[in-house]
């Protein structure tokens, strides 16, 4: 019988599917960077004006020119802040955005070929960094709960109007109080001075905007991960330095849409990467100006979306698990006269303007905008101001105020379960990912440009693993060979679940070198945490890096893993025991030993509840290397 086909008939097959979160999708087949000049783009049916999936953004209630929001320093939180003297394991980032985050608390410090999070935060000389992490989101009226498990992404967009950077951007970055709790900063600028002589200087040296951002962020432990510039459109991606090993596959692209696609004064620059295994794309756009160009803006956006990232992770913008789209999108407020717009702003009636915002209107009709979400526009229009003031345009142009500067996001939709497309196999990718917007605001205090900057903080989370295994980072004695495990409340256990011991570099979940049943006594049912141990016979003779994997009998897959840890037992233990030395087996087990060859891949121990007493455990200590189970859990089950 094929053990892999032995699903528990009581469990519907859909619920037996593991929810894996890995990165990478098939490349879209769309043509590379061919501008779309679609005169009539597909429209989609009208829907109610509502922000899909938006949970909350907590901006102060429609203040007109709000005063700088007072930083709320939570003193009780402060008293609990993490100081650098706290042991390393308590300082470890434990973000659920990372795979198996909860399993990381055991602090494996082993270097091994499997990806692992930093075992501890390296010493930080900036003494306030840890204190700051416990504060509420800086400079905001954030009311969303967020924990250390969140991966925090702070996005800023600003049309800087060819201005020099201001001396101090700490409040823009939320660093003046409570800073340092963000994991990544994404800064999208437009109209960075790109005069020829300035560009030449910027090629030789770093441009001043990049410089000021780096200077401001580096004391807080942020480093520039990547940047992309297309004339005045600049995208900067920063991350905490200890995330660098987990930010991979970085690629950048740009699309010119100015002058029919040959000039880069308008267009989009993007950076894609996997962040802890999740494919994320950041897209900074400067779309055409002027009220009458709404349709052109959509066309250009569609053209920019044709960007294809080359290489192994060849994919388009919308193939990413999460896309953040921001910039001077240049949409304006239709219909309403200038005085009505200004009255709405002055009287704090911004909602009057929402329905006339061209982007909001386009969201209802444009297919290409489907899935893009945006928080409510509770800040006043960020364009157009007299430079150096908070006064809307008094020049001869008399531009109507507009929310030109925007930040949106999009989760990759799940393919229908029965879809035959290539992506259907990845349909679960984003099912457990959650993006929460914590605030969406403007920054009125910056006056160097005719636009105000806009920023937003997001937290990214994925489901925690169904089973969390906790193990010490070294097994030097047989008595160390213990693991604790916790199961998620929604996890359906089977008494035939087992925990396999794998040598790092294993190729298949059946390549365990030893295993033990994930026992659960009757009296255990309400316990959160369980203990199991490996006996001497189950331990490998070969020292090296190993991991434990929890195999779910119901789901036919591994649903929890540890990071690599080291096994190095004393020679007295590893001197060799013949299989017959194991006294753990019933005579029936002994009879069945022959069914599992030590040289072949072990059969999946998919135990159907049979009429044979399960062994407590099975021996893996057979002669030869790599050590294979001399008897698999499967072999111990009647009828196999
Ligand atoms: O000519 P391109 O390269 O498209 O650049 C445009 C023009 O400079 C616009 O000036 P004008 O109105 O004189 O044509 C300006 O509009 P405003 O002067 O209204 O700001 C736009 O600013 P943004 O709207 O910030 O993009 C800017 O993007």
What's the mean pLDDT score? 70
Reported CATH architecture of the domain at 147-195 and 206-414 and 430-460: 4-Layer Sandwich
What binds here, in terms of ligands, is: inositol-(1,3,4,5)-tetrakisphosphate
Total strands: the figure is 24
Largest sheet: 7 strands, mixed
Q: State the helicity in percent bands.
A: 10-25%
- Span between N and C termini? 7 Å
Low-confidence runs of at least 5 consecutive residues: 1-39, 45-96, 98-147, 415-431, 576-604, 606-632, 634-640
What's the level 1 CATH class of the domain at 147-195 and 206-414 and 430-460?
Alpha Beta
Q: Report the sheet-strand fraction.
A: 15-25%
Q: Quickly give the structural class.
A: alpha+beta
Please name the CATH topology of the domain at 147-195 and 206-414 and 430-460. Deoxyribonuclease I, Chain A
Number of helices: 12
Your description of this structure?
The protein has 640 residues and is of the alpha+beta class. It is built from twelve helices and 24 strands. Bound molecules: inositol-(1,3,4,5)-tetrakisphosphate (4IP). The site of inositol-(1,3,4,5)-tetrakisphosphate has 12 residues, from β6.
């Amino acid at each position: 019988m094929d053990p892999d086909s032995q699903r528990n008939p009581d469990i519907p097959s859909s619920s037996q599917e593991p929810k894996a979160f890995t990165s990478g999708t098939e490349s879209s087949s769309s043509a590379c960077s061919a501008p779309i000049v679609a005169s009539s783009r597909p429209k989609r049916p009208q829907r109610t004006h509502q922000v899909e999936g938006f949970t909350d953004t907590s901006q102060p209630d429609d203040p007109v020119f709000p005063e700088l929001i007072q930083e709320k320093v939570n003193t009780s939180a402060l008293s609990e802040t993490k100081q650098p003297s706290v042991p390393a394991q308590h300082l470890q980032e434990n973000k659920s955005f990372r795979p198996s985050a909860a399993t990381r608390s055991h602090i494996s410090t082993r270097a091994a070929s499997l990806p692992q999070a930093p075992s501890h935060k390296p010493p930080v000389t900036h003494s306030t960094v840890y204190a700051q992490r416990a504060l509420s989101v800086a400079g905001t009226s954030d009311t969303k709960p967020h924990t250390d498990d969140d991966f925090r992404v702070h996005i800023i967009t600003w049309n800087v109007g060819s201005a020099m950077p201001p001396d101090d951007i700490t409040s823009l970055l939320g660093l003046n109080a409570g800073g340092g709790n963000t994991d990544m900063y994404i800064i999208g600028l437009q109209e960075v001075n790109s005069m020829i002589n300035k560009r030449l200087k910027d090629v030789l040296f770093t441009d001043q905007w990049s410089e000021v951002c780096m200077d401001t962020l580096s004391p807080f432990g942020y480093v520039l991960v990547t940047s992309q510039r297309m004339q005045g459109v600049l995208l900067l991606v920063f991350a905490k330095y200890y995330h660098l090993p987990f930010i991979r596959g970085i690629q950048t692209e740009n699309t010119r849409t100015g002058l029919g696609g040959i000039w880069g004064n308008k267009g989009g620059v993007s950076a894609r990467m996997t962040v802890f295994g999740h494919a994320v794309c950041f897209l900074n756009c400067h779309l055409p100006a002027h009220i009458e160009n709404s349709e052109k803006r959509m066309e250009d956006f569609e053209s920019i979306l044709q960007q294809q990232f080359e290489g192994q992770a060849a994919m388009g913008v919308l193939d990413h698990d999460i896309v953040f789209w921001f910039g001077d999108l240049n949409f304006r407020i239709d219909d309403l006269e200038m005085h009505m717009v200004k009255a709405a702003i002055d009287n704090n009636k911004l909602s009057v303007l929402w329905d006339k915002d061209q982007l909001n209107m386009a969201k209802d009709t444009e297919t290409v905008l489907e899935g893009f979400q945006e928080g409510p526009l509770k800040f006043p229009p960020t364009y157009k101001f007299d430079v150096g003031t908070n006064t809307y345009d008094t020049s001869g142009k008399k531009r109507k105020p507009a929310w030109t500067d925007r930040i949106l996001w999009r989760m990759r939709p799940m393919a229908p379960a029965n879809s035959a497309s290539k992506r259907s196999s990845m349909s679960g990718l984003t099912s457990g990912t959650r993006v929460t917007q914590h605030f969406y605001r403007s920054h009125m205090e910056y006056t160097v440009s005719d636009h105000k900057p806009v920023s937003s903080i997001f937290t990214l989370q994925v489901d925690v693993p169904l089973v969390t295994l906790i193990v010490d980072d070294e097994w030097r004695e047989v008595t160390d060979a213990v693991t604790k495990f916790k199961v998620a409340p929604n996890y359906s256990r089977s008494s035939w679940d087992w925990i396999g011991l794998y040598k790092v570099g294993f190729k298949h979940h059946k390549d365990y070198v030893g295993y033990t049943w994930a026992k659960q006594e009757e009296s255990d049912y309400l316990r959160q945490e369980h203990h199991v141990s490996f006996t001497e016979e189950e331990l490998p003779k070969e020292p090296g890096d190993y991991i434990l994997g929890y195999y779910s009998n119901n789901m036919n897959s591994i649903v929890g893993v540890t990071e690599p840890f080291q096994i190095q037992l004393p020679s007295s233990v590893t001197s060799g025991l013949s299989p017959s030395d194991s006294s753990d087996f019933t005579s029936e087990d002994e009879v069945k030993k022959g069914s599992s060859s030590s040289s072949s891949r072990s059969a999946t121990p998919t135990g159907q509840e049979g009429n044979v007493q399960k062994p407590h455990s099975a021996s893996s200590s057979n002669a030869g290397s790599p050590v294979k189970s001399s008897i698999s859990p499967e072999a111990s089950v009647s009828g196999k």
